[in-house]
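Progress report, Aim 2. The chain analyzed during this reporting quarter is listed below.
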Amino acid sequence: MAVRLEKLKELREEGIDPYGGRFARTHTTAQVRLNFEELEGREASLAGRIMAIRGHGKASFVDLQDRDGRLQLYIRIDNVGAELYGFFRKLDIGDIIGVKGRVFRTHRGEISLEVRDLVLLCKSLRPLPEKWHGLKDVDLRYRQRYLDLIVNPEVKDVFITRAKILRAIRSFLDARGFLEVETPSMHAIPGGAAARPFITHHNALDIDLYLRIALELHLKRLLVGGLEKVYEMGRVFRNEGISTKHNPEFTMIELYQAYADYEDMMHLLEEMVAYVAAEALGRTTVTYQGEEINLTPPWPRLTMFAAIEKYTGVDFSRLNEEEARRAAMELGVELEPGLDWGKIINEVFEAKVEPHLIQPTFILDYPVAISPLAKRKKDNPELTYRFEAFIAGRELANAFSELNDPLDQRRRFEEQMAARAAGDEEAHMLDEDFLRALEYGMPPAGGMGIGIDRLVMILTDSPSIRDVILFPTMRPKEE
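Predicted structure tokens for the chain:
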């Protein structure tokens, strides 16, 4: 850095602005490669970062990198003159430059640009890490994502694919008459999920507010108001642990359709995931961590109890709470004290079934105790019209036939508040305004939440959620 700072000083003394302004480039590196036959022998202007310099006396080769990739530059003193060539020799790897020249192919067959003019657009003061490609310190990659993007092209590809996935989701829903909306990120009462919230304070109103843990309750209010098909894609915040599957802030989409149910949501999800994969990747079969996964509909369906029996041999639907607790412990499932029947069933499912659900699978009919916003099943009021979709051993989506009975909803909120008073920090709070909205009447509806980051992980073969979030949450590191 000391050497580069000295070069910066020399440039300014020579009247050269080391942090230039606008540069009119005519092509990207990819456009030059793709249109070489048309461009050969013609002039083009490129801009990007110097990634390598190979000097040969009075001529040098440079690898120039922009968003689309790299292209070789050929700089010769006879073409640019001694003064400009001398200036070029003072540049460093990492500097950002603009160049103009003639498109040609070298004797070795490499498409290149023969430089005729060159301008410095940004002097890089900090050298790129040496041997970055062999670096195994993923913590540093996540903290300094800008470096990760500069030197690892496959990382850039992940986030370009992520953008394609988001566009495809919106295109799919918009074409089916859904309206994209925006709802508050700060809530007086956190609701719509079982999770611990982040708390902040509003100075002007002198009140504590919560960063949203879900999008659900505001979107259902819009169903009450007559917006019959709505969705929101946005950041959600949960004050929970960090793992390869969890980041405290993440992106999800929630959508609600009046006069539909969870069966409609199943069809919508499997069609949407296949459509998104085809649009973003050009195929509906992907490989995730060595497993080939077929996203083509229809996806198989299993009830939660059938799935547990399939992988444990135990039919928990016939067991009462104490019997279920004993059976879970015999299976080696660790249970916290005080869990009720529904939560015991869920713990067994997560421990013994989820890891086996590699191919896309719908798991149906969850207990009421863990589904406080879902409609009860008519033939078994202890269960709900709810499904979760699993791919690659992890939950991708959660959906209900939405509960629209305000009296039943109030009773369930009260049960959740009792659980909260008993120490369950993730239990739902009672939201009087949401209940008021239900009392005006919400049409029967299907609703669904989808984890965008987990979908991107599957479609880009990324093992950790941090690989698909540009700036994942990290503990501050002292310099």
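DSSP finds 16 helices and 18 strands in the chain. The CA atoms of residues 195 and 426 lie 4 Å apart. These observations will guide the mutagenesis work planned for the next reporting period.
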